[in-house]
Amino acid sequence: MAVATNAEQAARTRRFGRAGNRLLVVGGAVLATVLVWVIGEPLLGHDLVVVSPGRPAMDLGLAELAFVALASSLLGWAALAILERSTAHAVAIWTVAALVILAVSFLPFAGVETSGGSKVVLALTHVAVAAVLIPGLRRTSARPAPGR
Fold first, then answer.
1. What residues does 113 pair with on adjacent strands?
2. Which element (helix H / strand E) includes 50?
3. Which of 5, 38, 88, 99 sits at a 20 to 30 Å CA gap from 108?
4. Which residues are CB-neighbours of 33 under 8 A, at least 6 positions away?
5. Residues 127-138: pLDDT tens digits?
6. What pLDDT score was predicted for residue 144?
7. Measured between alpha carbons, how far is 104 from 110 in angstroms, rounded to an integer?
8. Residue 145 — φ and ψ, nearest 5°?
9. What is the mean pLDDT of the chain?
10. 45: phi then psi, degrees, rounded to nearest 5
11. CB 77 within 8 A of CB 137
12. At how many degrees (to 10) do helices 90-104 and 116-140 cross?
């Protein structure tokens, strides 16, 4: 894994600005979810229909998955921005919280009825968002200068 130097990070931030870079990360997280769905449902044939106890069957299509990926990514961005304004340890706190939220996001799989392949595809959508969002938003975070 390549680590960007401060100069490289500063050049990247100047090119798009922090908000622009974060918007690219959010777009990448949504795109990763779309790719998992395309491979899982149309190509491999795992119909993403889940049945929760006491509720009607729900077909999770591309629009639903993309919306959830977008909403969760924007919430992650907002949480990091709030933490950056209130603590010097924003990146560490946010990263731990993001990993905990990722782990907790798998709990509903135990309570829904669907095929094993569909559960794997749905789990991979969670992992895809996290795999793009966590390192991407961490990279855009303002780091305090040494000695601050």
1. 51
2. strand 49-50
3. 38
4. 65, 66, 68, 69, 125, 128, 129
5. 999 999 999 999
6. 52
7. 11
8. -65, 150
9. 87
10. 80, 20
11. yes
12. 170
